[in-house]
Specification:
Elements lengths: L15 H15 L9 H13 L9 H21 L4 E3 L8 E4 L2 E4 L6 E3 L1 H5 L4 H4 L7 H19 L9 H14 L6 H7 L4
Antiparallel strand pairs: 1-4, 2-3
Helix pairs in contact: 2-3, 2-6, 3-6, 6-7
């Protein structure tokens, strides 16, 4: 017995236009859902806790610990200060969580749903997708991209992180934050490092 519906996969290539339209449809539907859900800032708190506790991130150098902690806190403030409209989001709509089916694109792995600005979701998708998503606040998107880089960097330094090549990813995500703009997308970083 299964509670899942099987969807026959089709060609894995997804156009940025189709990806943007599917994500916009998902967001439109999620605006109508009114259920208690965590805020995106809860994810920041999780990352901050890993960074703040040397027992949870023993291999993270002290200078990097200070840098990452400061970056997470300042990005939280900057995004909150914008006062952007928040809604229920997927939380991680990166390409690894998108199925290409004959019925169109479907988003999976919704356990990361949270409330926040749509730019938080857009920070997880390929750059070309954002070019086709309507009414994006580019400044907010840049801050959200930095935030995603900082959160992923923190999690990769966590003791027991089982992500393949976690330390390498942690180092490269920290380097990207140190290098500054233009901010690479999560998709760009994963492709560069041979990940998802």
């Amino acid at each position: 017995m299964t509670l899942w519906t099987y969807y026959e996969p089709v060609v894995p290539h997804t156009s940025p236009v189709d990806y943007a339209k599917a994500l916009e449809q998902l967001h439109t539907g999620m605006r109508k859902v009114d259920v208690p859900s965590p805020r995106f800032t809860d994810r920041i708190t999780e990352a901050e806790e890993v960074v703040a506790d040397p027992d949870r991130s023993p291999e993270l150098a002290d200078a990097d610990r200070v840098f990452l902690s400061s970056r997470l806190a300042s990005l939280r403030r900057a995004i909150d200060d914008r006062g952007a409209v928040e809604q229920l989001l997927h939380g991680e709509p990166h390409p690894g969580n998108v199925l290409s089916t004959k019925n169109g694109l479907l988003f999976i792995d919704l356990e990361t749903c949270c409330r926040g600005p749509v730019e938080f979701d857009l920070a997880h998708v390929p750059e070309a997708v954002c070019e086709h998503y309507p009414n994006v606040d580019q400044g907010l998107l840049d801050e959200c991209r930095q935030l995603v880089l900082a959160m992923v960097a923190a999690w990769r330094w966590g003791l027991g992180d089982q992500f393949p090549n976690a330390r390498r990813f942690g180092e490269e995500f920290l380097r990207a934050l140190h290098d500054g703009p233009p901010w690479p997308t999560l998709d760009t970083m994963n492709k560069r490092l041979g990940g998802l």
